[in-house]
Design brief:
This protein has 122 residues and is α+β, with helices and mostly antiparallel strands. It is built from 2 helices and 4 strands, in the order E-E-H-H-E-E. The chain has one domain: Hypothetical protein apc22750. Chain B (Translation Initiation Factor IF3, 2-Layer Sandwich). The two termini are 36 Å apart.
Length: 122
């Protein structure tokens, strides 16, 4: 990868066409969000009739994006140009807060030097 390129983040353990030249280590981004008492009451009422609770869906989606941004900042700050094996984990803290963790392995990658070889079925 060249300077100025965006950090590569993948859920796989490799980036096609690239080789890992250095493993930096585990990187993560953590976000804890509070749902608030009003939101809990409304969600409780909504759960009685069923269906998606849009406010929570939006909150968790934004929390995941924020956690990924923190993961990327952590990895870049440690000299990585890629994160492999990226994943999420979440848990509840009490009944009012949700923790979202984005984590993966911070690495340095570079383009493979191999030129494509023809495939033969013989």
């Amino acid at each position: 990868m060249e300077n100025g390129d965006k950090l590569v983040v993948v859920t796989t353990n490799y980036v096609p066409g690239y080789k890992v030249t250095k493993v930096i280590g585990v990187s993560y981004g953590i976000v804890v969000r509070s749902r608030g008492i009003g939101g809990n009451i409304l969600a409780g009422l909504k759960s009685l009739v069923g269906g998606e609770i849009g406010a929570y869906t939006k909150m968790l989606s934004e929390a995941r994006q924020h956690a990924v941004q923190r993961l990327e900042n952590d990895a870049e700050g440690r000299g990585a140009n890629a994160i492999i094996g990226m994943n999420f984990d979440s848990s509840e803290i009490g009944q009012m807060m949700t923790e979202i963790v984005a984590y993966g392995t911070a690495v340095r990658i570079e383009k493979e030097d191999k030129s494509a070889e023809p495939v033969s079925l013989r």
